Amino acid sequence: MVDNRYATALVIGSVLSLLATVYLSVAVGTQHWYQYRSLPVKHESSNASELREEFISGEFDEKTYSDTMFRLNGTLGLWWRCILVPGQSYWFKEPDPKMETQCVSFTLPQQFVPKFNDPGNHNSGEDLLRTYLWRCQFLLPLVSLALVFLSGLIGVCACLCRSFTPTLGVGVLHLLAGLCSLGTVCCFLAGIDLLHRNSAPPDGVESSLGWSLYLALISSPLQMMAAALFLWAARSHRKNYTRMAAYRVA
């Protein structure tokens, strides 16, 4: 029989784990990790159409899509890159054309494309640090979600077997998942900082963190708190069970 304190800890830990999983899943699937703000783009004063076509259907190149995001209010995510461009114009002139977001996803092979010391210059040598930071930033959240899914399976099996022992493993898996989520945010921020050192945004372009990154950042402490509750419940229940067994023997 499980004490009410341990049952409450398991319920709260499960709720925290569910919230963390939802937050991290939304963060991975959205593009608002980092955003740029520049002057509004108008049809008459810029080649926005050419930049849009190059961004969407042109050859994949870090320098090209980065410069386009600098100029066209771009947003960057783990799997998406987006720009804000004027919508389709009609036969009459619109004083303020309606702006729309155009997004392109990173394909799996593109996630493994090496980064270069001078973005866009393939003869400048591979930048190993930026390359592995980029790969880690999209692999770590997948590992984190996989660990949470595995811990959920273990928890279901523990309930079916009416055993409290696997709760310790569930707590350890949640702790590792929280570290992976935190590592994702750290790798992303470090990669962006190194990119700006090698290819700085033009003057007048402002940059800021997006809400997707904050969701991923929030998911990490939620997973760690869930891990702490699971580990506490498993350890306390084990001590209590040992004491009760010793008392009965005596």
Give the helices and strands, then pairings:
Layout: H1 4-29, E1 34-37, H2 48-57, H3 62-71, E2 75-76, E3 80-86, E4 99-105, H4 108-111, H5 128-161, H6 167-198, E5 206-209, H7 211-249
Antiparallel strand pairs: 1-2, 1-5, 2-3, 3-4
Helix pairs in contact: 1-5, 1-7, 5-6, 6-7
Share in β-strands: 5-15%
Instruction: Return residue spans where pLDDT drops below 50 for at least 5 consecutive residues.
Output: 241-250
Major beta sheet, specifics? 5 strands, antiparallel
The H-and-E topology, N to C, reads as HEHHEEEHHHEH
Count the E strands.
Answer: 5
Judged by helices, strands and strand pairing, the structural class is: alpha+beta
CATH arch. level architecture: Up-down Bundle
Largest beta sheet: strand ordering: 4-3-2-1-5
Helicity range: 55-70%
User: Assembly state here?
Assistant: single chain
Cα shape: elongated
**CATH overall fold name:** Butyryl-CoA Dehydrogenase, subunit A, domain 3
Mean pLDDT: 83
Subcellular location: Membrane
Transmembrane segments: 138-161, 168-191, 211-234
Keywords: Membrane, Transmembrane, Transmembrane helix
Protein name: Claudin domain containing 1b
Would you kindly provide a written description of the structure presented here, covering whatever features stand out?
It is a multi-pass membrane protein. The chain is an alpha+beta fold. The protein has one domain (4-237): Butyryl-CoA Dehydrogenase, subunit A, domain 3 (Up-down Bundle). The protein is built from 7 helices and 5 strands, in the order H-E-H-H-E-E-E-H-H-H-E-H. The protein has helices at 4-29, 48-57, 62-71, 108-111, 128-161, 167-198, 211-249; strands spanning 34-37, 75-76, 80-86, 99-105, 206-209. Residues 241-250 have low confidence and may be disordered.
